[in-house]
What does this fold into?
Amino acid sequence: MSVLIINDNPESQRLIGDYLNSYRYNIVFSTNRKDGFNTAKQISPAAVILNPFINDKSIWSIIVDFKNDPETKDIPVILTMILEEEKVGWEPDVFDFVLSSRLLRVSENN
It folds into this structure.
């Protein structure tokens, strides 16, 4: 099973990739939105782990691209980011977030 990581930060790629490799996921990396989007269409990953602050497009338009395309709309997109404001994750269609420094899943009811 493949997981696509779209992140332009090599340290974040390594951290997330190492964690997922320990669960035997096949990890595919991309460093920009365009290549990541095309790769997702080619490999149909089980999930996309996305740093929404990659330099080539705004945060929510990347998610909109994935959710509006028939080939990628059903692929779960997981956002990873380092921010001081945790509530930034509570935007449309985003209901969970990961604290990447500890790789913990946090769930709340809005």
Summary: Helices lie at 10-21, 33-43, 59-68. The chain has three helices and six strands. The chain has one domain: 2-107. The radius of gyration is 13 Å.
